[in-house]
Write a structure and sequence with these properties.
By secondary structure, the chain is of the alpha/beta class. It is 42% helix and 16% strand. It contains 22 helices and 16 strands. It comes from Candidatus Scybalocola faecigallinarum.
């Protein structure tokens, strides 16, 4: 293994990454592709943490005329071998670079303030042109933006004004980079001020990206394509490159060859099957890619111990609002499809890219589309009819499956905590097996299974319902007699009840009764009641519970 190089965890500044010798997975041929394709306004939509901000920083460092040659930063990288046709663009342009990923405030006032701060930072970054601005009124306006003293309405055309000032000074049109444009929109939707924020973003975009003679070309990145009618009104020059497009796929995320090279460099080639299972599975156009954030975090975790187990690193960085929303809003059919996905199968849904946050609950299809474009589902294959495009999609890997499972569990715990389960508890204490079975089946219909209806799924389900049984102690898999009963519920006082639950799973609905009796027989054979008897309980109820999918049957016997 070569000398350990630090991995750029959280480092999205290209210049810092290169100068401080972090490991860099070379994506510089993105520059060549952009120049070849000649899109005037390029919108790239990719999931969070797939290298968008680092790529934007790389583009800025390559194209920007900062007064110093950027060539040393790119020495040894792929773009340097492409010839003068591309290298002639190096250090040639004024660049406006805006990142909106920090606009996550809970009120419109605070979010707009942070937007003004970001714009002021960019005006101050270019303040060397102040003396080149011809008209005093324009210099005064420039200073108002730099000092955050401009009127609110002036911010609606602020970036266009800056591009005109730069064009007048450099005599060459600007390159404009807008990173994570949809973060303030997603935040505004969930915080309740979407209309105000979308109006501001729309106005800024229209002014700077539409019929602007000071624009050479623009790159905009985000997680979702927000409807053209909503944000990109009238932008006939907009070129959208989403995860369904074949172009540019290899520049966002790590390809198989890139991951193999990384793993080989750090002496971890033997771990390839493990991280393929956890972090691979995305298909951008026709490019198979890994989650780059998770790959570099995993490799970093192996610095001291190469046998470190993978973790769900992406789940700690991404907002899971959309997954939670899907679960909370879902009906029985959607819950069935989530079960299908969690168990490794795929579903087929129509694809609609031109949706807005306002549409999220308009139909079930929109919810699936949000999951697809934000990286919670991935393409298996595309199918087209005469009028519509359908996507066969699945959960990409174990890491994302973990997010579904934890989201489902958290939701179930919250929902269970809100329910009045007194009728269930009363039925358990009085031995009403029919009502117990009815209530359990009713609750099963509302849950999502991610264990393919194995016994541990039902064990967790029943424990979750019983845990809030007030004034009773709930024990799971505690040793008693010649084994461990599934669940024991007992009164703190030995004068109360001791209750034993044993769970069985039937392969057919017709086998439920037989499995119930097998559960009771196991309680008897293994003498599960012995611990309760030794403690002094005299009122002991034994329940055999059999499950088949969302149905159950309950039998009992008393001591």
């Amino acid at each position: 293994m070569a000398v350990w190089k630090p991995l750029p965890i959280g480092i999205d500044n290209f210049k810092k990454l290169i100068q401080e010798n972090y490991f860099y997975v070379d994506k510089t041929l993105l520059i060549k592709e952009l120049l070849d394709m000649k899109g005037e306004v390029n919108l790239f939509t990719r999931p969070r943490r797939f290298g968008k901000t680092l790529n934007m920083s790389m583009l800025q460092n390559f194209f920007e005329n900062s007064g110093q040659s950027p060539a040393p930063l790119f020495q040894g990288l792929k773009i340097m071998d492409t010839g003068d046709k591309y290298l002639s663009h190096m250090g040639k342009y004024p660049v406006i670079s805006i990142c909106l990923k920090s606009l996550k405030q809970s009120t419109y006032k605070n979010a707009f303030y942070c937007l003004k701060e970001e714009i002021a930072r960019e005006f101050k970054r270019h303040d060397q042109i102040l003396n080149l601005i011809e008209y005093p009124a324009d210099r005064e306006k420039y200073l108002r933006f730099a000092q955050m003293q401009a009127n609110d309405e002036e911010y609606l055309t602020s970036l266009k004004f800056l591009s005109q000032c730069l064009y007048d000074s450099f005599k060459i049109p600007c390159i404009i980079l807008i990173d994570e444009y949809d973060v303030p929109l997603e935040n505004a939707w969930f915080s309740g001020f979407y209309k105000e924020m979308s109006n501001v973003i729309r106005s800024i975009f229209e002014s700077v990206l539409k019929t602007n003679d000071s624009l050479s070309f623009a790159v905009v990145t985000g997680c979702l394509r927000i409807s053209k009618e909503s944000i990109f009104t009238g932008l006939n020059n907009l070129k959208i490159i989403s995860v369904t497009n074949d172009s540019y796929g290899e520049f966002w995320g790590f390809t198989q060859n890139e991951v193999e090279s990384l793993m080989d460099f750090y002496g971890l080639s033997k771990n390839m099957p493990l991280i393929r299972d956890w972090y691979d599975g995305y298909l951008f156009g026709d490019s198979h890619v890994y989650n780059p954030w998770s790959v570099i975090n995993y490799i970093d975790s192996c610095h001291k111990n190469p046998n470190t187990l993978p973790k769900p690193y992406w789940s700690n960085t991404s907002s899971n609002h959309i997954v939670r929303s899907l679960i909370e809003q879902s009906d029985f059919s959607v819950k069935q499809e989530i079960e299908t996905l969690i168990q490794g199968a795929s579903i087929i849904k129509p694809v609609h890219e031109d949706i807005t946050y306002e549409d999220i609950y308009a139909s079930k299809d929109h919810l699936w589309n949000f999951l697809f474009f934000t990286g919670y589902l991935t393409k298996v294959q595309e199918k087209q009819t005469d009028e519509d495009i359908y996507m066969e999609m699945k959960i990409p890997n174990r890491e994302v499956r973990y997010i579904y499972k934890t989201s489902v569990l958290h939701w179930f715990e919250e929902q269970t905590g809100k329910k009045d389960l007194s009728a269930l508890y009363e039925s358990i204490l009085c031995g009403d097996t029919q009502n117990i079975a009815h209530i359990l089946s009713e609750n099963l219909m509302e849950t999502i299974s991610f264990y393919d209806y194995q016994e541990n799924y039902y064990h967790g389900f029943l424990t979750g319902l019983l845990i809030n049984m007030k004034n009773y102690i709930v024990q799971s898999n505690r040793e008693s007699g010649a084994g461990r009963p599934d669940i024991v519920v007992k009164s703190p006082s030995i004068r109360g009840e001791g209750i034993i639950f044993e769970i069985k799973v039937a392969k057919r609905y017709q086998d439920l009764e037989q499995k119930c009796h097998e559960a009771l027989e196991q309680i008897r054979e293994k003498n599960y009641a012995s611990a309760l008897l030794q403690e002094g309980y005299s009122r002991i109820i034994k329940y055999g519970i059999a499950f088949y999918r969302k149905e159950c049957m309950v039998c009992k016997e008393n001591i």
